Amino acid sequence: MKDAKTIKSAGKRLKGIAKIIKGVAKRTSIIAKWIAMIAKPIAESDKCLTTVATSTYCDRSFPDHPL
Residue 58: in which H helix or E strand, if any? Predict the structure, then answer.
């Protein structure tokens, strides 16, 4: 009987761990979504900045620059 009890308690513990992992995963996915939402406009604006910088700054400074 002792073995059955330990198996049961181990199962309960695993279930608890699984719940915690699920909760953490849910939170991290929400955080990841927020990061993506914040990062996307930054990345897009950065693209514009670099293209503007390369087209104006590089053309003036280095006439035979590959960009």
Answer: none
Quick one: how many helices (H) and strands (E) in the chain?
2, 0
Report yes or no: 67 and 58 within 8 Å, Cβ to Cβ: yes
pLDDT tens-place string over residues 20-62: 888 888 888 888 888 788 777 666 665 555 555 555 544 445 5
54 contacts 67 by C-beta, under 8 angstroms: yes
Token couple for 34: 């927020």
Q: Is the dihedral of CA 35, 40, 45, 47 positive or negative?
A: positive
Compute the distance between CA of residue 4 and CA of residue 46 in angstroms, rounded to an integer.
60
Residue of higher predicted confidence among 56 and 17: 17
